[in-house]
Amino acid sequence: MNNQSKYTEELLRFLENEENYPEMIEWIEDLPELDQPDVFREMEAIFKERHLKTGEQDWLDKANLIASGIDDFEEEILDNKLDKALFMMQFDNIEINPEQAPLFLIEARKVIIKVILSNPEDIKEMWKLAKKIIKLEKEAGIYDPANWIEIL
């Protein structure tokens, strides 16, 4: 391959044997999210090159299958990153009307718990936010550890 990425060697190692595929998927999932589409593009290129070398249709079919989902996958990752950034921006320098504070804190707590339980890659950011919300709950006199039991 002429245009090798930093993941080419590792991908080639995984692709030597189909028994390595589950391990390869785990490896890809452990990579930074923004790198994952590039890894799939690299895999597509490897499969196309193998098709050109061998003439086997199976390689081209695999390449086309991967290619068909890369853009949507990347778009989903970018949308999630944007949503997270916008969500976090809402809490920067926030001023809450005292009468609405309990309702706001309840809703924020629900969202934070949901994100922590469903998106392990966001735990660090969400824990920072959870600590801020817990502090606000304590200041407002509505803190109850039972409300946070799912993640504490």
Automatic annotation (TrEMBL):
This is Uncharacterized protein.
